[in-house]
Amino acid sequence: MSANETAKLNSSGGPLFRRPDLSHEEFAAAWHRHGRLALPWALQFGVREYIQIHMPDPESLATSTTDDDGTVEAKARRIIMEADGVAIMRRYGVPTEKGRLYFNNVILKDERTFLHDESGAGAVKGDPPIYDVPELHVDVWREMALKMGGIEHGELCYLLNTLN
């Protein structure tokens, strides 16, 4: 769908966490493949940007609570230190029934092979939740992740913007 004055650009995303049985490297490889799997859906159903920000292996980062002032931002920094990545998607409109079927049967099914149950579009929160992620705008997550050493992979973003 092309952007027009009546369509609203919706942004979603946030931190992602790998399944406990996967290494950081296995997660990164699976997430790259996942982006390619999602591309046909993205092109057909109004996605303008899909950005993957791959974080350094959380086990390699030194944990520090010196800046823990109890704010939402401090909590978000702690979460990003544990995250394996941050995903951002911007799209126009809502997918049709056909789009929802592909999303549910292909994209969500693939996510379950590499994402923690409480992570990603198909997240189901436990009680109590393992990952209690604060509601922040996706651009705040993006900025924080990049400041903390994340590497942005935007080849899908470039491809989507050139084709749409």
UniProtKB/TrEMBL annotation:
Domain of life from the UniProt record: Eukaryota
Gene Ontology MF annotations: oxidoreductase activity
Coiled-coil residue spans: none
Segments forming domain EthD: 19-62
Similarity comment: family membership: Belongs to the tpcK family.
Entry protein name: EthD domain-containing protein
